Amino acid sequence: MSDTDEHHFESKADSGASKTYPQQAGAIRKGGHIVIKARPLRSPPPRLGSMVTQSVTLLPLTSLMERSLRISFLHPTTVTVPHVDRQDYQLIDITDDGYVSLLTESGNTKDDLKLPTDDVLLGQIKTGFADGKDLILSVMSAMGEEQICAVKEIGGGK
């Protein structure tokens, strides 16, 4: 190989910080998160004081949708926990196909999120929007998945 040969490497790796970190199963807080089968899931708190950390019911990232999964961990077990971020956006519009248009802090729009499947949260968003209220939607994201998890009203509406 000569000094003039060039090598080009194509990186498929994600740049930046890791999307997960290790944590003891017994240290998972109420409403904490855990990764099972490469999916971020929400977990109720484990019970302490025995050789087995309780069987925990794992729910999809931010809402009580889909199905639950029960799993037990022997004490002490290290599990994978996702880095979770929460961002607030102002609601601009709701499309007929169930997507929301959100205003970011930089003034751009975010149009790739669907309305939540949780009936209570969905009702609050649709009713508030129909009433002309200014709404802020909280979006939780982990491992490339995003979900609307809360709504709050700002101002007095129109």
TrEMBL record:
SMART domains: eIF-5a. Residues 1-13 have a biased composition (Basic and acidic residues). Belongs to the eIF-5A family. The keyword Protein biosynthesis applies. Pfam families: eIF-5a, IF5A-like_N. The keyword Aminoacyl-tRNA synthetase does not apply. It comes from Triticum turgidum subsp. durum. GO terms for biological process: positive regulation of translational elongation; positive regulation of translational termination. One of its GO terms (molecular function) is translation elongation factor activity. Gene3D superfamilies: 2.30.30.30, Nucleic acid-binding proteins (2.40.50.140). Residues 1-24 are annotated as: Disordered. This is Translation initiation factor 5A C-terminal domain-containing protein. Keywords: Hypusine, Protein biosynthesis. Residues 83-152 form the Translation initiation factor 5A C-terminal domain.
